[in-house]
Write a structure and sequence with these properties.
The structure is a homodimer of 356-residue chains.
Chain A (H helix, E strand, L loop, with lengths): L2 E9 L3 H19 L2 E6 L4 H7 L5 H9 L2 E6 L14 H11 L4 E7 L12 H4 L3 E7 L9 E6 L2 E11 H16 L4 E6 L5 H13 L7 E6 H10 L6 E4 L1 H15 L6 E5 L5 E5 L16 H15 L2 H16 L17 H11 L1
Parallel strand pairs in A: 1-2, 1-3, 3-12, 5-10, 8-9, 8-10
Antiparallel strand pairs in A: 4-5, 4-11, 6-7, 11-12
Helix pairs in contact in A: 1-10, 1-12, 6-7, 8-9, 10-11, 11-12
The complex binds 3-isopropylmalic acid (IPM) (2 copies).
One 3-isopropylmalic acid sits at the interface of chains A and B.
Pfam family, one (chains A, B): Iso_dh
Function (chains A, B): Catalyzes the oxidation of 3-carboxy-2-hydroxy-4-methylpentanoate (3-isopropylmalate) to 3-carboxy-4-methyl-2-oxopentanoate. The product decarboxylates to 4-methyl-2 oxopentanoate.
Protein name (chains A, B): 3-isopropylmalate dehydrogenase
Chain lengths: 356, 356
C-alpha cells in the first residue's frame, strides 16, 4: 500500500516514552497489514524551547505540513511555566492548531470496564457512559485580539471572543456527521442567554439541523451542561461547543469517566489530515521512570487509523489488543489497584504488540 | 432594634411559594429577637415582562435601592425563553446585578447529611466537602461590548471580556477575607496560559497574597479545576474566579454535592447590602402545586442575617431549625427517598418556624 507520512512530535515529560510504544504498535501493523509508514520526528514544546528557542520551530511545522497525520505525545512542565508567553509550550500548541487549521477537537469520553472503580462517580450513574465532545479549536476567545490598555479605572486587560458563521458551520456539520454514525443525539452547548457569539452559534445550529432530520438535537446552556454531565452522563452522545467551553467540559467529561489516563483525542482540519494525542498531559513527576501508561497514545493511533487513513480493521486489532491485555489483568501503575503488580511502559507496549 | 428594609422580589415559577415560607421565618425572628422588618414587594423577571413590559421595572430597582437587603425567589420559564433579549428574565438578572453594583456572588456548596445519597459522587469522595465559590459578577464577558459585524468571511459575532485591576482587586480581597474566616485555603481559578484577562487576574492575586500570609494560595487553571472538583472536592475551601468561569464552576460544585435544592447564595456589593436567593431555579414544571422545597430560600435568609445584618444568633437558630426538621425525617418531594411521605411547601415552612 501507499506510504503514509507520519510526523512524530514526542514533546516533553512522558511524551517520548508513550510515543515510543505507539510507534511499536504502528510498526506491528506494517507487518500485519502491509502498511508503510514513514516517520519524521520534530521538536515541539519545552524541548524545542530549550533546543531551538521557540516552542514551535519552523522545521517542525514543515514536517507536520508534509505529513498525512501527526502523532503528538504531550508538552509542558514546570520548567517552562514561568516563561514569557512566546516561550511557553502552550503557545506552541495554540500555534500548531492554527497553523495546521485544526478547527475540530474530538474527545471521546468512555468508560473502561477495568477502570469503572477509578471514577469518583457511582458506578450505576456512569453505566453506559460513552460520549464525544466536539470542541471548536481555532476560534473564539483563544484566538481573538488580546491586549492591555489604560481605562478610566486604571490598567485593564481585554480578550475578544469572535466567531463567524463559517467557523460555526463547519464544526457543527462535523458534529452532526459524527452523531449520524452513533446514537444520533447531539447536544449543542452555548451561553445564548448572555453571549452574542452563542446566539450566532445557536442560529447556525438551528439552520443546519433540518439537514439532519434523524438527529435529535438539544441546546444546553454551558452551566447546565456542567451539571448534567454529573447528573446523567450516560444520556449524552455527541456534545458540540465552542473553544473555551469545550476546554472545560471535555476535561470534566474525561475526568468523570475515571479513564482519563486511557483517553485519546483527534484534532482535525479540512480533509483527512489530523493530529492525534493522548488526553493526559506530560506528567513531569513520573517522566523518565518508565512507569507511564502508553495506552491513551496507542489508542490515539487507532483513532488516526480510523479517521485519517480509513484503516478500520487495523484500528480494531489495536483496540482489541488493548482490551485483551487489560482483561488479562495487566496494569501500569496509574491504573493498578495493587501497585506492587504494576508493569512498566515498555512491558505494556510489548504486551499490546504481542496481543495484536 | 432598628427597622430593616427588605425588598422582596418573588419572581416566577416556584419563586413566590418559596419566598412566602422564607418570609414566615423572618417574621418569626421578629417575634423571637425583637427585630423589625419592613417588606416591600417588587415585580421582577417574567411576571414583570408580562405586567410591565420589562424584566426589571424602575419601581423594582428603586425598591431595591432603598432597601438594606433583597430577597429574590427565582426568575424565568419557558414562556419567555424565545423572547428578544430585552424581554427576557435573564436580562433583568444581569441588569439588577449591574445596577446594584453586586460584584460578588457567594455560593456555598456543602453536603447535607440527609442528602449524601442524592449526589452522583461516591460518598467517600464527597465526605467533608464544604466549599465556597466566590464569583465575580459584574465584569468580564458578561458585560463587555457585544455586537455583530460583517467580517472577511461573512457575518460574525463578537463578545468582549474586560477586567480592570480594581475589579479584580475587590473580589480577590473579599475572597481572601472569606478564606480567613474558614480553613484559610484559597484557589484562584483562571486560564492564564491563554487569556490576557487571566494574566491580569493572576498578577493581582499574587500582588494581594502577601497581605494574607496565613492563607494558602493555589492557582488552578479552569479546565483543571473542572476536573479537580470531581476528583477531590473536599480539598477545596474557597474558590475565587471571574464571572464566566464562576458561572460554570459554581453550578458544577453545587451539583456534585447532591444538595442543589438546598443551597443558598448571596450577591454582594460594597458595604453590607446584599441580594440573597436560592441556587435552584424557578422550576416551572412544579410551580403552583405547593410541593417545592423552601429550604434553600430559608437558608438564604440565614445568609442575609449573617452577611448583611450581623444577626448571627438568629441565623444559627434558622440553620439549626432546618437541621432539626430534616433530622426528624421531614422531606419535600425533591429530597424524599419515599415520595409517598413527602410534605408540601407550607408544611415544611411551618415545621421550620415551629422548630425555631
Ligand atoms: C494547554 C492549553 C492551552 C490547552 C487548551 O486550553 O486548549 C489544553 O488545556 C488543551 O485542552 O489542549
Ligand atoms: C441566567 C443567567 C444569566 C445567570 C448567569 O449566567 O449568571 C445564571 O446562570 C446564574 O448563574 O445566575
Amino acid at each position: 500500500s501507499e506510504v503514509k507520512k507520519i510526523a512524530v512530535i514526542a514533546g516533553d515529560g512522558i511524551g517520548p516514552e508513550v510515543v515510543g510504544e505507539a510507534l511499536k504498535v504502528m510498526k506491528k501493523t506494517e507487518e500485519l497489514f502491509g502498511y508503510q509508514f514513514e516517520f519524521e520526528h520534530g521538536l515541539f514544546g519545552g524541548i524545542a524551547i530549550d533546543e531551538k528557542g521557540t516552542p514551535l520551530p519552523q522545521e517542525t511545522l514543515d514536517i507536520c505540513k508534509k505529513a498525512d497525520a501527526v502523532l503528538l505525545g504531550a508538552v509542558g512542565g514546570p520548567k517552562w511555566d514561568n516563561n514569557s508567553k512566546e516561550l511557553r509550550p502552550e503557545t506552541g500548541l495554540l500555534g500548531i492548531r492554527k497553523a495546521l487549521g485544526l478547527f475540530s477537537n474530538i474527545r471521546p469520553a468512555n468508560v473502561f470496564d477495568c477502570l469503572k472503580e477509578a471514577s469518583t462517580l457511582k458506578p450505576e450513574v456512569l453505566e453506559g457512559t460513552d460520549l464525544i465532545v466536539v470542541r471548536e479549536l481555532t476560534g473564539g476567545i483563544y484566538f481573538g485580539e488580546k491586549f492591555r490598555r489604560e481605562g478610566a479605572n486604571g490598567e485593564e486587560a481585554v480578550d475578544t471572543c469572535v466567531y463567524n458563521v463559517q467557523e460555526v458551520e463547519r464544526i457543527v456539520r462535523q458534529a452532526f456527521d459524527i452523531a449520524m454514525t452513533r446514537s444520533k443525539r447531539l447536544a449543542s452547548v452555548d451561553k445564548a442567554n448572555v453571549l452574542e457569539t452563542s446566539r450566532l452559534w445557536r442560529e447556525v445550529v438551528n439552520r443546519i439541523a433540518p439537514e439532519y432530520p434523524e438527529v435529535e438535537l438539544e441546546h444546553v446552556l454551558v452551566d447546565n451542561c456542567a451539571m448534567q454531565l454529573l447528573r446523567r452522563p450516560s444520556s449524552f452522545d455527541v456534545i458540540v461547543t465552542e473553544n473555551m467551553f469545550g476546554d472545560i467540559l471535555s476535561d470534566e467529561a474525561a475526568m468523570l469517566t475515571g479513564s482519563i489516563g486511557m483517553l485519546s483525542s483527534a484534532s482535525l482540519g479540512e480533509g483527512s489530515f489530523g493530529l492525534y494525542e493522548p488526553v493526559h498531559g506530560s506528567a513531569p513527576d513520573i517522566a523518565g521512570q518508565g512507569i507511564s501508561n502508553p495506552i491513551a497514545t496507542v489508542l490515539s493511533v487507532a483513532l488516526m487509523f480510523r479517521l485519517t487513513f480509513g484503516y478500520h480493521e487495523a484500528a480494531q486489532v489495536i483496540e482489541d489488543a488493548v482490551k485483551n491485555v487489560l482483561d488479562a489483568g495487566h496494569r501500569t501503575g496509574d491504573i493498578a489497584v495493587d501497585k506492587s503488580t504494576a508493569i512498566g511502559t515498555t512491558a505494556m507496549g510489548d504486551l499490546i504488540v504481542a496481543a495484536m
